[in-house]
Write a structure and sequence with these properties.
The complex is a heterodimer of chains A (490) and B (99). By secondary structure, chain A is of the alpha+beta class. Chain A contains 15 helices and 18 strands. Chain A has three domains: 289 residues, no CATH class; 126 residues, no CATH class; 59 residues, Arc Repressor Mutant, subunit A. Chain A is 41% helix and 19% strand. Chain A is elongated and about 100 Å long. Chain B is flat, with a radius of gyration of 22 Å. Chain B has a two-stranded antiparallel sheet. Classes of the chains: A alpha+beta (490), B mainly alpha (99). β2 of chain A pairs parallel with β1 of chain B.
């Protein structure tokens, strides 16, 4: 893209709510049931039925509003949004238009070396549509209405986003908040977190917006990044040639990495919104807001601040550990394993945790960026990293040696244990080897052992010396002390 | 306010209705009458539509507890549809957009 253009992006996210039932009927809100097993006259859109609003959906909306600093409106109104599509049996979607549940608020995203605030325009409640299926069916489409009427929150940002990286960070943080607060499971594969983008370009320094294009069908963070880059380049080329950008909806095609226009509609869509006559306004009980406030867990940005303080790491590093769920889980598992090693080695775990976190942020993060989540499993599963870190804490390996071992493990898919043993790294003489030397020393010095057991404690030093000799000076003296004491008291 | 034939056809297309020439003329007149009446209503000073609930008017929307109730059997759900295939509703093919 030419440097003279600035990218302007606003994002719309549809997030399914973690309620037990649908928004306007008591059919189960559940993914993966057999087709059309979770329907009733209300969500099938039969004539004469009345919608009955799910209280929990309203409460989850309030909770998200509190987590994102939105204005929570005591009154909001449902409207009918009309369009014809087979997945919408009523011919309209019950949504909120003029008076949404939430407005304002925002969240902070990484932007280059700093941060930027992305404002929220509005968040409203609405019902999901059913699911159409086309693949492998000749001359027809199939419709499953299990999803019809599932509660959604639509989260609309202001056009404050300026780069694909900011867009991805915004989505990751939003998803993190939804998950942390229990509002949604944020599962992109199952479609409970879906995102559309409005993208336009304008000359740098300009304050007017260019013509925007809506992009749909970006069902992973990586695709969002790709789609925005592609669209930006496409629009820049149009503008460079003196052509104009057409306001349209385009679909992202993940197989080519391009955006393609949807079939142009013969007429501009007119949703003919009007207030839903079957639902009087939603009036919030003020005590719900306090109740939901008390249910707020530690929010992701609070967790980042805590981890940053706890481990003495930069906030942006802590953020990586909070945002990237596989790394976060890896760290938790590794911490648990580190407790075991600390117990065995007789040192306080706090001595190892910062080393573990730093190892993760330097070595593991680098390889994770390079090779993906596969490096968090198998021969380099969490407890293997703890093992390596424990060796460093116990001064049996230097930090640089540990890094070398890790690098070899990455390339050879072997465990740190194997690599350390093979390289015969000096201080690494596991309990097995130590145990053997100690047994030998005990067997070879029966007189000294006998005297020690009878009370000549100063002979202990002699015995330690014998073990150190056998190890060629490689054994960790503290460990020898402990294991030898154990052996002698048997 | 007199509606043109084009405006009537636009509304008909939005509603997926096909009209005969006689119906076009008929609805042009009828819809114009409705719009005139709405014009009259617009002259009244009223609170914003939808938002107003006061003590002496209607109740706010009632709420339901989030407790599942059994859905209807799949066969019953499909029974009113013009066509189905296995457990799915079957509809005329929707062209995949953008392809």
């Amino acid at each position: 893209m030419s440097a003279e253009y600035e990218m302007v992006v606003g994002l719309e996210v549809h997030s399914q709510l973690l309620t037990r039932t649908k928004l306007f009927c008591r059919c189960e809100n559940r993914f993966g049931a057999p087709p059309n097993a979770l329907t009733c006259p209300v969500c099938l859109g039969h004539p004469g039925v009345l919608p009955l609003l799910n209280e929990e959906a309203v409460r989850l909306g309030i909770r998200l509003g509190l987590a994102m600093g939105c204005s929570i409106h005591q009154r909001s109104v449902f409207d009918r949004k009309h369009y014809f599509y087979p997945d919408l049996p009523k011919g309209y979607q019950i949504s909120q238009f003029t008076y949404p549940l939430l407005t304002g608020g925002g969240l902070t995203v990484r932007s280059g070396e700093g941060t930027r605030e992305i404002r929220i325009h509005r968040i409203h409640l609405e019902e999901d549509a059913g699911k159409n299926m086309h693949a492998g069916i000749r001359d027809a489409s199939h419709v499953d209405l299990n999803r019809s009427g599932v509660p959604l929150l639509e989260i609309v940002s202001e056009p404050d986003i300026r780069t694909p990286e900011e867009a991805v960070d915004y989505l990751k943080k939003l998803r993190q908040i939804l998950r942390a607060t229990g509002v949604s499971d944020g599962n992109m594969e199952e479609g409970s977190f879906r995102c559309d983008a409005n993208v336009s370009l304008r000359p740098g320094g300009s304050s007017v917006f260019g013509t925007k294009v809506e992009i749909k069908n970006m069902n992973s963070f990586r695709f969002v990044h790709k789609a925005l880059l592609f669209e930006c380049e496409r629009q820049a080329q149009l503008l460079d040639r003196g052509e104009r950008v057409v306001s349209e909806t385009r679909l992202f095609d993940s197989s080519t990495g391009r955006t393609l226009p949807m079939r142009s509609k013969e007429e501009a869509l007119d949703y003919r919104y009007f207030p839903e006559p079957d639902l009087p306004p939603v009036v919030l009980d003020p005590k719900w807001i306090e109740e939901e406030r008390s249910r707020l867990p530690e929010l992701p940005h609070e967790r980042v601040a805590r981890l940053s303080g706890e481990f003495g790491i930069r906030e942006e590093d802590a953020e990586v550990l909070v945002l990237e769920e596989d790394l976060s889980r890896y760290l938790e598992e590794a911490r648990e394993a580190l407790h075991e090693y600390a117990g065995k080695g007789g040192w306080p775990v706090e001595q190892g945790t910062p080393r573990l976190v730093n190892f993760l942020l330097s070595e593991v993060l680098r390889e994770w960026n390079r090779k993906g989540p596969a490096i968090l499993t198998g021969s380099l599963a969490a407890r293997e990293i703890s093992y390596l870190v424990a060796l460093v804490v116990e001064e049996r390996l230097s930090l640089n040696q540990a890094k070398d071992v890790y690098a070899v493990c990455i390339e050879s898919l072997r465990t740190p244990r194997e690599v350390v043993a093979e390289k015969n790294l000096s201080q690494e003489s596991g309990e097995d080897a130590l145990g053997r030397w100690i047994d030998d020393v005990v067997r070879e010095n029966p007189g000294e052992v006998q005297s020690y057991r009878e009370g000549k404690e100063r002979l202990f030093g002699f015995l330690v010396g014998q073990v150190m000799k056998k190890s060629g000076g490689k054994a960790n003296p503290q460990k020898v002390n402990r294991l030898l004491k154990e052996a002698l008291s048997r | 306010m007199k509606l043109t034939k084009e405006q009537v056809l636009h509304v008909a297309r939005l509603a997926s209705l096909s009209l005969t020439p006689e119906e076009e003329a008929h609805f042009a007149g009828e819809l114009s009458g409705i719009l005139d009446y709405v014009e009259t209503l617009n002259r009244l000073e009223l609170p914003p539509p939808g938002l107003h609930v006061s003590e002496d008017m209607s109740e706010p929307t009632p709420l339901a507890a989030d407790m599942p109730r059994p859905s209807i059997p799949t066969e019953e759900a499909l029974s009113n549809a013009p066509d189905h295939s296995g457990s799915f509703f079957r509809v005329p093919r929707i062209l995949e957009e953008g392809r």
